[in-house]
UniProtKB/TrEMBL annotation, chain A:
Gene3D superfamilies: P-loop containing nucleotide triphosphate hydrolases. This is Multidrug ABC transporter ATP-binding protein. GO terms for molecular function: ATP binding; ATP hydrolysis activity. It comes from Streptomyces yokosukanensis. It comes from the Bacteria. Belongs to the ABC transporter superfamily.
TrEMBL record, chain B:
Residues 1-10 have a biased composition (Pro residues). This is ABC transporter. The keyword Transmembrane applies. Keywords: Membrane, Transmembrane, Transmembrane helix. It comes from Streptomyces yokosukanensis. The chain crosses the membrane at residues 58-76, 96-117, 138-163, 183-205, 212-233, 272-290. Residues 1-20 are annotated as: Disordered. It comes from the Bacteria. The keyword GTP-binding does not apply. It holds the Pfam family ABC2_membrane_4.
Length: 319, 295
């Protein structure tokens, strides 16, 4: 159980984390979602006692991180894959961590086997690919067989097989009754692994909800219509009290509308339709909307792109 | 486009019930690994593994041994072949170890800085501090392990060079046979001093957090005062010049061989106490900064 109460971090005038209050519960995977620069890593560093909070408090089962006498057997963390001395072998890296917490030496071989790095255990870490570095970081997190696990962007740099593996690993860790807290900037990734969702943007809490609730509340359904008799269709819909949004390119959208109802309406008034399709906005779009105000680094490569197009492009990359 | 969720209420959130936290109230995973209350011993074992598992340790110490032996041998043979019958009358033959150890100390400085600063360069420091949240314990463990390694290597090397010089230069140019105190200062004394100089560098590395920066500062601090003093010709600067000549690191090191640049200033074992004081102050400063700063 990790509990944050009004946790804040300021760097000069800039507020990186702004009064975060939430709890991460055992037995489930809690996703920690936010755009780049939202303050996810800063929050995780404060949980681990690396950064001092400017205000507020964070406790792990009621205690501050610095009060843990055996931190690695209590909480394991993957912060970033590069937090390794490149000149040291994977085995020695894990060995020095094990020794610092009095963890038996045999665990080093065990976790190396778990993450599949046994064959390169004696190789220097600087020769590792991003994916191998990520696996070494996960091995370090698992070393003490801790009851709480934190992963900061664990799927970065992993191949599809590796991503599949880490998903199953997180689920099985949570199923054993452990607390699993995992950050990501990919909604699609979270939708597959997380049971609970904490969303932040510009350091502020935007949502703290279960995954099914988030999907129910945030997946917008709408009907997409194209018609050569646009004006007539608009009039017809308007008369029936249906609100229409013009989405550009001759496409009309009706929020929450029923395709059947609109189709029958058009038939009754003799309006020709070229397209009438029910649509479901993806969770990515829901996440985009939720954090739209809170995205720190917007890409402005093409000034002609509207928000709609930009979200489509973003979605395309994410998949 | 109306799916925006109202933000969660935040600011004066009710305090979570800390008391209910540990143990029973919710089912939690219990690790089969025995729980250990960690202490300095664990940190020492960890730092020992760290220092011996990187190649830079072998390189810096290897170059140190080569420099001290090589320059010692060179100095010894030059002195042996160029000495007249009375040119070294009543002099200590161990003094020629100084040149090698002065250059070799640069290696110890480098290793000292790397012990702390390289962790900041690689990001390893975050892993280290997560594994051991007591930052002072980490610094203490690093200091103890480094000091022990630097002292043992310096003692063995300077001891062997001293024995080599004593046998090479026996009776050459009328040298005296080294006294017990001269033996002690030329081996134990200088080794403690060099290890302390390295420890001071380790602490500077922890403060500066940048390997190249800290090494530059330390080498500058060792060599610059003496070089600057050499160019202080003006009479009005003579007192500054005198002070720099007496207290610069090379001058302090030469005290262990009884051949200071001046007649006043530190003598005998004094430099050891000076460096010990400096290191204690640096340790306190580095600890205060470690506690205060974010990792």
């Amino acid at each position: 159980m990790i509990e944050l109460a009004g946790l804040s971090k300021r760097y000069g005038d800039k507020v990186a984390v702004d009064r975060l209050t939430f709890a991460v519960r055992p037995g489930i995977v809690t996703g920690f979602l936010g755009p780049n620069g939202a303050g996810k890593s800063t929050t995780m560093r404060m949980i681990l006692g690396l950064d001092h909070p400017s205000a507020g408090d964070v406790r792990i089962d009621g205690r501050h991180y610095a009060q843990l006498k055996d931190p690695l057997t209590y909480i394991g963390a993957l912060l970033d894959a590069k937090a390794v001395h490149g000149g040291r072998s994977a085995y020695n890296h894990l060995l020095c961590l094990a020794q610092s917490n009095g963890i038996p030496k045999r665990r080093v071989a065990e976790v190396l086997d778990t993450v599949g790095l046994t064959t390169v255990a004696r190789k220097k870490a600087k020769g590792f690919s991003l994916g191998m570095g990520q696996r070494l970081g996960i091995a370090a997190a698992l070393l003490g067989d801790p009851r709480i696990l934190m992963f900061d962007e664990p799927v970065n740099g992993l191949d599809p097989e590796g991503i599949h593996w880490i998903r199953n690993l997180m689920k099985s860790l949570a199923a054993q009754g452990r607390t699993v807290f995992v950050s990501s900037h990919l909604m699609s990734e979270m939708a597959l692994t997380a049971d609970h969702l904490v969303v932040i943007g510009q350091g502020r809490l935007l949502a703290d909800t279960s995954m099914p609730d988030f999907i129910r509340q945030n997946s917008r359904s709408y009907v997409r219509i194209r018609s050569p008799q646009r004006e007539r269709l608009l009039d017809t819909l308007h008369e029936s009290g249906i609100t229409v949004v013009e989405a550009g390119g001759g496409v009309l959208e009706v929020d929450g509308g029923k395709a059947e109802q609109i189709g029958e309406l058009a038939a009754r008034h003799g309006v020709v339709l070229h397209e009438l399709s029910p649509q479901q906005a993806s969770l990515e779009e829901a996440f985009m909307q939720l954090t739209a105000e809170a995205v720190e680094y917007h890409a402005h490569a093409d000034p002609g792109l509207g928000p709609q197009d930009r979200s489509a492009g973003w979605k395309g990359r994410a998949r | 486009m109306s799916t925006q969720q109202p933000p969660m209420p935040q600011a004066p959130a009710s305090q979570p019930d800390w008391q209910a936290a540990p143990g029973g109230s919710y089912p939690a995973y219990t690790s089969p690994i025995p729980v250990v209350r960690t202490h300095l011993g664990h940190a020492l074992a960890s730092e020992w593994t760290k220092i011996k598992s990187v190649r830079s340790t072998m390189w810096t110490l290897g170059v140190f041994v080569l420099l001290v032996f090589g320059i010692g041998l060179l100095a010894g043979s030059v002195v042996e072949s160029n000495s007249g019958s009375e040119s070294l009358a009543d002099q200590d033959p161990l003094q020629f170890g100084f040149f090698g150890l002065l250059l070799g100390s640069m290696c110890i400085i480098t290793l000292g800085v790397l012990t702390t600063a390289s962790e900041y360069g690689t990001g390893m420091i975050r892993t280290t501090m997560v594994a051991c949240p007591s930052r002072v314990r980490v610094l203490a463990a690093k200091s103890i392990v480094f000091f022990a390694v630097a002292f043992v290597v310096s003692l063995v090397t300077s001891g062997l060079v001293a024995m080599m010089h004593a046998s090479m230069l026996q009776g050459v140019g009328g040298t005296s046979s080294p006294t017990g105190d001269e033996w002690l200062r030329g081996t134990l004394g200088i080794s403690l001093y060099i290890a302390l100089l390295g420890l001071f560098s380790l602490l500077i590395g922890s403060v500066i957090r940048h390997s190249a920066g800290a090494i530059t500062i330390m080498i500058g601090a060792v060599l610059a005062p003496l070089v600057i003093a050499l160019f202080m010709a003006s009479q009005s600067l003579s007192r500054v010049r005198e002070w720099l000549l007496e207290y610069s690191i090379p001058s302090q090191m030469s005290c262990f061989y009884g051949n200071s640049l001046s007649n006043s200033g530190p003598t005998g074992w004094d430099p050891l106490w000076i460096m010990l004081g400096l290191s204690a102050v640096a340790f306190a400063g580095a600890c205060a900064l470690l506690q205060q700063r974010d990792v």
